[in-house]
Write a structure and sequence with these properties.
Elements: E1 2-13, E2 16-27, E3 31-35, H1 42-50, E4 57-62, E5 65-66, H2 72-77, E6 80-83, H3 95-104, H4 121-133, H5 149-161, E7 167-171, H6 179-190, E8 197-201, H7 205-211, E9 214-219, E10 222-227, H8 229-233, H9 236-251
Parallel strand pairs: 3-8, 3-9, 6-7, 7-8
Antiparallel strand pairs: 1-2, 1-4, 4-5, 9-10
Helix pairs in contact: 3-4, 3-5
């Protein structure tokens, strides 16, 4: 079953074409990675999928429903979750408070303003479950701003999982992580149930090849290659692009 379908998606900003005629689908249980050099349009694509941007052309379908013009909060209630490249956490609140706010957002109790949140025991149980999975339960009463960068990344992913998503969008989940934290992140993403479609944008090629069932390569806003890890590794066009990037890096 297909959870996501993108057809002819394009985006320009003041005449600058960032994405052009991008089409692909994501099946339930599939982990799709989107890679490409800086400026390829990867984060713009996620912002379109999440509703933060509107496309110049093309359509987006979630479980067959056209969500192209649907606002972000409505997509969340259709069980689309997202983690961000830059932290969107409430840094002055505790880890637990951040988690409870995220969980409360999809439950009917958010409308019961005259009842203390402490009376909703099921919310605490869910928060505990998610924070333990991220090894963050022991830090539940600490302010988010005191956490290390890797711990904040894990909390960011935990908040997106609080939505119980059927489609999970992950923007650079391994950015800034130490080796052991990266291993934890790989295991977390791998451990997502078979009824969740995952779209990952990341520069960490080891993580991408470890996790992805299928990989799409974006270059100047267009898809230039698509396939499994073996096909992408052996693609001459992809090699040319990344070898060129490495050559430019050495010159700098």
């Amino acid at each position: 079953m297909e959870v996501l379908r993108v057809e002819g998606l394009s985006k320009n900003f003041g005449g600058v074409q960032v994405l052009e005629d991008v089409s692909f689908g994501v099946r339930l249980g599939e982990k799709l990675a989107i890679i490409g050099p800086n400026g390829a349009g990867k984060t713009t694509l996620l912002n379109l999928l999440n509703g933060q941007l509107s496309p110049t052309a093309g359509r987006i379908y979630l479980f067959g429903e056209d969500i192209t013009a649907m606002p972000t909060h409505r997509r969340a209630h259709l069980r689309q979750g997202r983690s961000f490249q830059l932290s969107s956490l409430c840094s002055n609140l505790t880890v637990l408070d951040n988690m409870l706010l995220a969980i409360q957002g999809i439950h009917g109790c958010r409308f019961q303003m005259f009842r203390s949140i402490t009376s909703f025991k099921h919310l605490y149980r869910k928060a505990q479950e998610l924070l333990r999975a991220m090894d963050l339960w022991e830090k539940r009463n600490e302010a988010v701003e005191t956490l290390g960068f890797g711990e904040q990344r894990k909390l960011e992913v935990a908040l997106s999982l609080a939505l119980q998503p059927r489609l999970l969008l992950l923007d650079e989940p391994s950015a800034g992580l130490a080796a052991d934290e990266r291993t934890d992140m790989v295991n977390i993403i791998r451990g997502q149930a078979g009824d969740v479609g995952v779209v990952i944008v990341d520069h960490d090629m080891d993580l991408v090849f470890d996790i992805a069932d299928r990989i799409i390569v974006l270059y100047h806003g267009q898809i230039i290659a698509e396939g499994d890890s073996k096909e992408i590794r052996g693609n001459s066009r992809v090699k040319e692009i990344y070898m060129g990037m490495e050559e430019e890096h050495r010159k700098c």
